[in-house]
Amino acid sequence: MKTSVVTFCSLILICGLLLSGCGKIGDPLPPLVRTPLGIEELRIAQEGGRLVLSLPLVRSRETRRIERVDIYRLIEEGSDPLGLPTESFTARASIIASIPATEIPVSRSTVTYVDPLEMKKIRRGIRYRYAVRVINLSGAASDLSNYATILPLADVAAAPTALAATQQEREIVLSWRGPTANSTGSTPVNLAGYNIYRRVAGSADSPRRLNSAPLKDPLYRDQGFQFGLSYEYLVRAISLPPTAADGAAEVTGIESDESPLLLHLAKDTFPPAAPTAVTAASINRVVSIFWPLNAEADVAGYHIYRAEAENGQPATWQRLNPQLHLSGSWRDDRVVVGRTYLYQITAVDRFGNESVRSETVRETVNQ
User: Fold this and answer.
1) Which listed residue, 24, 83, 165, 267, has the most CB atoms within 10 A of its CB?
2) Superfamily holding 43-150
């Protein structure tokens, strides 16, 4: 009886499997296409005779499936509506460049593309409209990015020249020659000010703007430097679009091409002040010298000099310390009772700059 029940149940299970294999649920579905990462923060800015397109994209696990990024450009009348359907844009625009995935930086979050302008051929009132689209390894395309639009300014000041630096103890004084014409050669020059940029030499970072507001004069004092470092400086002139003449608020200036890069080593050649209030006292056949420590932060130590003749020239002075002395006192036990000795102290900074000598103190060795 038990064997019959097992056989019956086995038959039901086999029939169920056969029926499920023959049943038709629906038409087969196409394979799922993975749409690549889209871009929604495309930006455009003019820098002299070029338009710089910026898109936020960094190489990551997601971008490993990307083959390239296509860049579209449409040149249109500035009076055309800002709103434009995607179909109309793709039909009228051209793909001006493609950025392969291998050129997407690993460490940066922004990819840039530079579109050069023929400044002398720019017609006023022409708008440049850009968009990008990401293509993955399967050939699938993302949606178009947002539009980035700009009306290029033709009357942009030429780049500043003759950028020079003068090192001082507390600042680097930078000066340059301002442009007298626009980049096209036209005059009067459209000049509203300057921006100055700096980065540590050899750095992969973009130069950082130092001035918080446009500079009116071709001069800047950099007080945020560090001795021992080399810096790269550049300056750009600022031009204003025609809307600025209408009194429009918050008009953004257009920067010129950059000046020739200036490499400057911030070298400390400035000695500290001489120690002051030096005193000396003798007891038990020893002369002790005391002085207050210098206030400069870069003072590394002191030298102690001694002579036996009051009118002795510097060549007759002997340095007592074989190595840089760190404290504000010195004990001289290599003396002869009854003799009078002269002492001078100098301060030395961490770059090896030695101060002038302190005022001379004299002391007679007591028994």
Assistant:
1) 165
2) Immunoglobulins (2.60.40.10)
